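Objective 1b of the project was to move from sequence-level analysis to a structural picture of ligand recognition. The entry below was assembled by the postdoctoral researcher (A.K.) and checked by the PI before modelling. It contains the amino acid sequence of the target and the SMILES of the bound compound, zinc ion.
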Amino acid sequence: MPDERPIPSPNPGTAPYWKAAREHRLALPRCRDCGKFHSYPRARCPFCGSPRLAWEPCSGKGTIYSYTEVFRAPSKAFAGEVPYLVAIVALEEGPHLMTRLVTADNTSARVGQPVDVAFEDLDDEISLPVFKVTQP
Ligand SMILES: [Zn+2]
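Corresponding predicted holo structure:
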C-alpha cells in the first residue's frame, strides 16, 4: 500500500471527466438517443445500447443515497484523514457516484440529504469531485 495518497490516472475513456473536474465542473456521458446520463463511462449506453454518447455537464446536485464512516485507513496515505465519510450520491441526472462526503461534523450526514459537488485539487492536474451537504 502506498504511503502517499493515490492520484487518479486519466485514460482515454475517463479523460473528459477529469478535464471537466480540473475546471471544477462535473460532466458525465449522456446518450444522444435515449437522453440518459450514465456513470461509469462505457462505449455504449447501458440503457439502450446506443454508441452515440457525448460528455455533458451535470448540475452537481444530488442526494445522499447511502454512506459509511471510515475509521480504519485503507493505507498509510489516508491515516491522517480518518474518520471520514464515503457516500453514494444519487445525482439529479440519475447516475449514482461513489464519492467522499465532506461535512463539518461526520455525525450530521443523513440518507436523503441534498448535496452539492465541490472539488479538491490534488495536484496541478487532478481535481477530485467530492460532495458537501447543501447549505440552506
Ligand atoms: Zn441510451
